[in-house]
Recover the amino acids of this structure.
């Protein structure tokens, strides 16, 4: 199990366009239509399964919110940062 990151480490390692919200890091992605968001959520789910690290995914009209935290560690770890980076690389932003 990964160790909890310090406030300073989270600040330094949180990818651009992601923000910290308590024990989570979060980003909301915008899409041109609902189904593009649904497809993105599917892709995030596949990454989550491959990493065995599962975000909260909220699908709304033309946007998808991704929230990451490490439940077992009780906060934000390298696993969350890595997942955010993988999602960013897939999104191509
Ligand atoms: C038993 C435990 O749920 C598993 O080891 C994995 C599954 N996916 C997970 N996902 C997240 N976000 N945090 C975890 O601690 C976690 N643990």
């Amino acid at each position: 199990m990964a160790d909890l990151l310090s406030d300073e480490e989270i600040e330094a390692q949180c990818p651009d366009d992601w923000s910290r919200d308590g024990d989570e890091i979060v980003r909301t992605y915008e899409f041109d239509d609902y189904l593009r968001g649904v497809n993105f959520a599917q892709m995030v789910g596949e990454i989550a399964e491959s990493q065995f690290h599962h975000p909260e995914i909220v699908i709304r009209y033309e946007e998808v919110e991704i929230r990451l935290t490490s439940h077992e560690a009780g906060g934000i770890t390298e696993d969350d940062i890595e997942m955010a980076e993988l999602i960013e690389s897939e999104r191509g932003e």
About this structure: DSSP finds three helices and four strands in the chain. The domain at 7-91 is CATH 3.30.1360.20 (Gyrase A; domain 2).
